[in-house]
Design a protein that fits this description.
254 residues, mainly alpha, 2 domains, 75% helix, 0% strand, Brnchd-chn_aa_trnsp_permease, cell membrane
Length: 254
């Protein structure tokens, strides 16, 4: 049972308004993902897979980086175990996303948590976290998160179709540098979060190590860089957490 104040907030929230706000706020990310989806569809059209295979992957996997990696491994005749393990490692960052958002969705029914988890991407995380970060956990319903996630999901499917349809007609489309749009999107995701020294240090650590370790097999360098960045952020945040906990304990004892 939720406390009275939380129950009131959830009751008074307007699902359609929240859903629309989420879909609206992720539009800039949708624009950045567009060229990325087109390039993916183009690569499918010029690769060993059937067109419907590429679309099915977007429908079921819904993870751009993992889909690109899987497509390259399939073209290289890699085994299923290698494809599965590599994409698994690349997507481990979603565990960090889930851990960050978990306190804000823990009060939701299982059906909502499963649905939101299926729609979680880098872009959706950035938008959802910005919405949740200044709100008390348990006071916000699922509709904003769902609106952002569903909008991005439909956007990715649409751009995949576009790439599949035009890939055969324009086989050199992937060489036009359209993938820079995704780089710009990730810059837009990361930079607004760098509001404190510990965030800057974590980002600098992860970015530097990802560059230095990029030759590691199966993208393990990326995973190691992520964990190193998280470790730096945790270490730098620890001294700030202790005074807050002490103040809360003192206030509670009063």
């Amino acid at each position: 049972m939720l406390p009275g104040s939380r129950r009131q907030v959830l009751t008074q929230s307007k699902p359609l308004k929240e859903f629309t706000a989420g879909a609206r706020d992720i539009i800039p990310m949708m624009v950045g993902a567009g060229p990325f989806g087109v390039i993916y569809g183009t690569l499918v059209a010029s690769g060993p897979l059937q067109l419907w295979h590429g679309q099915l992957m977007s429908l079921v996997v819904f993870a751009g980086s993992a889909q690109f990696i899987a497509l390259g491994l399939i073209a290289g005749h890699a085994s299923f175990a290698v494809i599965w393990a590599t994409t698994f490692v690349v997507n481990l960052r979603h565990v960090l996303y889930s851990a960050t958002l978990a306190p804000h969705v823990a009060h939701l029914p299982a059906r909502w948590r499963w649905a939101l988890g299926a729609l979680l991407t880098d872009e959706v995380f950035a938008v959802a976290w910005e919405h949740y970060r200044n709100r008390e956990p348990g006071t916000v319903g699922p509709h904003y998160f769902f609106g952002a996630g569903l909008a991005m999901y439909l956007n990715w499917q649409s751009w995949t179709v576009a790439g599949l349809l035009f890939g055969a007609a324009f086989p050199g489309l992937q060489s036009l540098g359209l993938d820079f749009a995704m780089v710009a999107t990730f810059i837009a995701i990361v930079v607004p979060q760098l509001v404190a020294l510990r965030y800057l240090a974590a980002a600098a650590t992860a970015g530097t190590l990802a560059f230095l370790w990029q030759a590691w097999p199966y993208k393990l360098g990326l995973l190691g860089a992520v964990f190193a960045g998280v470790a730096v952020g945790v270490v730098l945040s620890a001294p700030r957490l202790r005074p807050r906990r002490a103040r809360r304990s003192a206030e509670a004892s009063r």
